[in-house]
Specification:
The complex is a heterotrimer of chains A (327), B (241) and C (361). By secondary structure, chain B is of the alpha/beta class. Chain B has 10 helices and 10 strands. In chain B, the strands form 2 sheets. A 6-stranded mixed β-sheet of chain B has the order 6-7-8-3-9-10, sandwiched between helices. Chain B has a 4-stranded antiparallel β-sheet with strand order 2-1-4-5, with helices on one face. The longest helix of chain B has 16 residues. Chain C has a two-stranded antiparallel sheet. Chain C is globular and about 60 Å long. Classes of the chains: A mainly alpha (327), B alpha/beta (241), C mainly alpha (361).
Chain lengths: 327, 241, 361
């Protein structure tokens, strides 16, 4: 992003995939619809994955329970949007936004708050012990999921899109869902905000330095533990936001959605390289596109296609497309 | 009579099962350049890391400026105005030189808030820092990285500067640059603790010297005295200068 | 002789030895000691899970690898028996073909997964196995012609194992000697043999190298052991035993579906048992599986009582609902990882060692 010889190869993978698939799909309008859908899904996944990869890069902590915050955000949204039905049922977009924006904010706050507790009670006691981290964060997710069932009930809840966000926009022959465009915009905004924070603020500088050499940052006088808590909470909040977006994308939420999206997230950050935001974006876009293309071309192998993608990338670059320097 | 700025008393350090420091007694006088010498594996780097709190002393105590720092965490020790340059220099390769410097300037939230006068002085000591200001630090040569590492340590005024092997792998011309810089620093009143393998470098700089072997300090005294005693040099350092 | 049977891996703790003996006798005579269908079901599940968890312990406790693909091999074994019996009818040949092909498939998959760990780090490996296991679960649900899809496959077993087959017309000591009993004892013998085999494996030179690798991979490689080879062999062995456990499950239930053998919940159960029982002990699998199965079956009844008793406080009643069993499991799991990292077996052994030290000195 700043230096002369930026590694463009991974970035090129995204348009490459889109182009390769074009002849298989045939129709230009279908391709456009699928591509936008893939980008939208990919950006939602990026929003969720970005926090997880930074947390790992910074503190070597792998949160197998990240999915919990996704589900939490989605369920909170059902409550908020459910109580604002006169705003969501209006067909004026700005009125819908008055409902959706608070839903997103509340979801982020709740997910962030739970993230704070999660870090303190589940993660902190097992710093540096990877095996225990895996086990305990999984346990934390199970406990969280069950608590969601206690509060909201164990069954699926519908999360219908507000009126003005439904429907399609026609570009030539291609029908592009309005919501997907909104998701792309929100996703890009989040990406932009992350990139700006990481590159233009001192905190961002600390995070980028901490990912490379935690000890040195401490030797320079910074309490990296506080930084870590902040990144963890932000990551959880972003996952909550992603959960809202995902719930609206699927138009329903279930308590297991966290565990389901978890697998996708892991594939994404493995492809991207643990600790790399840019890598997470590339990985997310690839996964989103792949899911939509195979969903159309060969639905039965959708999940396998992502694993094949992951395997392929790892054979090319075993540490992910943008490995983070010193580990 | 110079006072002691940093004192180590009977410091033991264990790394896992390995007992590295066996009771280090070290006094670093205020305002002077102290050299910590010794063979490979004597425990010099471990001593520095223990001072910085990167490794916790299992026994003994460390006092800095009258304050007990034995149990403090690394950031807290750094906040006592101690700057540390590790053996591997600790340069953030993916960040630019400018970003490396900004990071070290705790009081500045952005480049504009950095002390510009001080920066100019640093540029004078280490010209490559200015030359490669917007380049990724990873692209610098070994000598340039070393200069950046020291520049970073002094970007704000510090009381104690701890440097692990500043001359390692440096070309002679750059070594002279380094010696000059340390001399100028010393004039500003900074106390300096250096670990060195290169005795001629050490000789030109040091006021006080401490020699370590097998995890303890086996000799301490003035650099002048050690310089004039070839026999002592040979027995302590295996050198014949 | 007993020492040789246990491959020199003695309980090393009087309370543990007694517990194991009680367990052995309890399982051996379960049909006679605990009458009723439910009790026998619990006992059979204990046997199956002992094998499943012990095979997981080989991988986690002895080799130090976290793999979430374990239930995949469990499922392969179960589906092997199910599919073969469905297609070839209830014959011993079908069982043989089913088990054989399941073992071959497990071997190949484990080989690929094991070799893949060459290129990636432990954390990556854990995540990848999670992804692969999820994909396999989806696959099983989707290949409905082959696997019966979401509904699974119900099938018949060879005649002498069928519940309707009676060996004797009169009950013996109050229990009908029927095919069900025969199946149970088949499982019992299998579980005993497999567990003892695992003990032999972990106490062999191979097993010692595994533990060396777990402790310090770098040093093991430096001494000259090809770490990847050992890890791959360990993951293959672990998969084969899990596959056998799956076959045992299918045989007992005469049914298999995605939820019976491939679900994530089973993976969690296995993790919980191995942690509570004690990682790296093998006996931990036995003790843990027993405690767990008993608790799972009977604790839900307890929760139901609690839930009904606290109806006045709806939030408390909801927390104690028997369907929220997994919540308390999760809490127990987290607490175990913190406070019982060595599990029940570890704690018992430490206590005995301390007592011995005090006595002997």
């Amino acid at each position: 992003m700043k230096n002369m010889d930026f590694d463009w190869k991974p970035v090129a993978l995204v348009p490459l995939l889109a182009l390769l698939v074009f002849p298989l799909i045939g129709s230009g309008s279908t391709w456009l619809t699928l591509t936008v859908a893939g980008l939208a899904m990919g950006l939602i996944i990026f929003v969720i994955a970005s926090g997880l990869t930074l947390v790992f890069g910074l503190m070597d902590v792998l949160n197998f329970g990240h999915g919990l915050f996704i589900a939490l955000g989605a369920f909170v949204a059902t409550t908020v949007l459910g109580s604002m039905s006169d705003w969501t049922q209006s067909d004026e977009l700005w009125r819908n936004m008055v409902a959706v924006l608070p839903a997103m904010l509340v979801a982020m706050l709740v997910a962030g708050a739970v993230g704070l507790a999660f870090e303190r009670f589940i993660v902190k006691p097992v710093y540096g012990q990877h095996l225990k981290q895996i086990l305990i964060t999984m346990g934390g997710m199970i406990i969280g999921e069950e608590l969601i069932k206690v509060v909201w009930g164990p069954q699926q809840i519908a999360l219908p899109l507000p009126e003005a966000m439904r429907g399609v926009i026609l570009i030539g022959d291609a029908a592009i869902e309005k919501y997907r465009i909104i998701a792309v915009i929100v996703g890009l905004l989040v990406f932009g905000a992350l990139v700006w924070t990481l590159n233009k603020t001192k905190i961002g500088l600390l995070i980028r330095a901490g990912v490379q050499d935690r000890e040195m940052v401490e030797s320079l006088g910074y309490r990296i533990r506080r930084l870590f808590i902040g990144v963890f909470v932000m990551g959880s909040a972003l996952a909550g936001l992603g959960g809202v977006m995902w719930g609206l994308y699927q138009q329903s939420v279930t308590p297991q959605m966290g565990a389901q999206v978890n697998v996708l997230i892991f594939i994404v950050i493995i492809i991207g390289g643990l600790g790399s935001t840019a890598g997470a974006l590339i990985g997310a876009l690839l996964v989103g596109l792949m899911a939509n293309y195979t969903g159309y071309l060969a639905p039965k192998v959708a999940l396998f296609s992502n694993i094949a993608l992951m395997a392929g990338i790892l054979l090319w670059r075993p540490q992910g497309v943008y490995p983070v320097a010193n580990r | 009579m110079t006072t002691a700025l940093l004192t180590l008393s009977g410091v033991h350090t264990h790394i896992g099962a390995y007992h590295i420091l066996h009771g280090v007694d070290l006094v670093v006088p205020r305002g002077e350049v102290t050299l910590l010498l010794g063979r490979n594996g004597a425990g010099k780097s471990t001593t520095l890391r223990t001072i910085m709190g990167l490794w916790r002393a299992s026994r003994g105590s460390l006092t800095f400026d009258g304050r007990d720092i034995t149990a403090l965490t690394t950031p807290e020790i750094a906040e006592c105005n101690i700057a540390y340059v590790p053996e591997n220099m600790g340069i953030f390769a993916d960040l630019t030189v400018r970003e490396n410097m900004l990071l070290a300037a705790r009081g500045a939230a952005s480049e504009k808030q950095m002390d510009q006068e001080r920066l100019q002085w640093i540029f004078g000591l280490f010209p490559p820092v200015q030359k490669f200001w917007n380049h990724p630090a990873g692209k610098l040569s070994g000598g340039q990285k070393q200069m950046l590492a020291v520049a970073r340590a002094i970007v704000e005024p510090r009381t104690l500067l701890i440097v692990d092997e500043p001359s390692k792998g440096l070309a002679p011309s750059i070594i002279n640059n380094m010696i000059d810089a340390f001399a100028q620093l010393k004039k500003t009143g900074v106390t300096i603790l250096l670990v060195e393998q290169n005795f001629s470098f050490a000789q030109k700089l040091g006021d006080t010297v401490a020699v370590m072997d097998h995890g303890v300090v086996v000799h301490s005294g003035s650099m002048q005295a050690l310089s004039q005693d070839a026999g002592l040099q040979k027995s302590l350092l295996g050198l014949a200068i | 002789m007993l020492t040789r049977l246990l491959s020199n891996d003695l309980p090393r703790s009087r309370p543990l030895a007694i517990l194991l003996l009680v367990l052995l006798l309890g399982l051996a005579f379960a049909p006679f000691l605990f009458p009723g269908v439910k009790a026998l079901n619990v006992a059979a599940k204990v046997l199956i899970f002992i094998v499943l968890v012990a095979s997981f312990d080989l991988l986690l406790g002895y080799t130090g690898i976290v793999s979430f693909a374990h239930t995949m091999f469990f499922g392969i074994g179960a589906y092997g028996i199910a599919i073969a019996s469905t297609r070839m009818g209830p014959t011993w040949a079908a069982l043989g073909v089913g088990l054989g092909s399941a073992l071959v498939l497990s071997f190949l998959l484990a080989l690929v997964i094991g070799l893949f760990s060459l290129r990636v780090r432990a954390i990556f490996f854990a995540m990848i196995t999670l992804a692969v296991a999820s994909a396999f679960l989806t696959l099983a649900s989707q290949l409905s012609e082959f696997t019966g899809g979401e509904d699974g496959l119900t099938f018949k077993v060879p005649e002498i194992l069928q519940p309707s087959y009676d060996f004797m017309d009169e009950p013996f000591l109050g229990v009908m000697l029927d095919g069900r009993l025969a199946t149970y004892y088949l499982l019992f013998v299998l579980a005993l043999v497999l567990l003892l085999t695992l003990l032999r494996i972990v106490n062999s030179p191979f097993g010692r190298v595994l533990q060396a690798i777990r402790e310090n991979e770098f040093r093991a490689e430096a001494i000259g052991y090809r770490v990847v080879v050992y890890r791959t062999i360990s993951s293959i062995l672990s998969a084969l035993f899990a596959c056998m456990a799956g076959a045992m499950l299918a045989l007992w239930l005469r049914y298999n579906g995605p939820d019976t053998s491939l679900s994530f919940e089973i993976m969690i159960d296995v993790l919980l048992i191995v942690v509570i029982g004690g990682m790296g002990t093998m006996y931990g699998a036995a003790i843990g599986a027993t405690l767990f199965m008993i608790a799972q079956s009977y604790l839900q009844d307890l929760l139901r009582l609690g839930s009904e008793a606290t109806v006045a406080l709806p939030w408390l009643s909801a927390l104690l609902s028997p369907q929220r069993w997994l919540l308390w499991l999760g809490v127990l799991f987290v607490l175990s990882v913190y406070y019982f990292p060595t599990g029940v077996v570890g704690k018992l052994r430490v206590r005995s060692a301390r007592r011995q030290a005090e006595r002997g000195g």
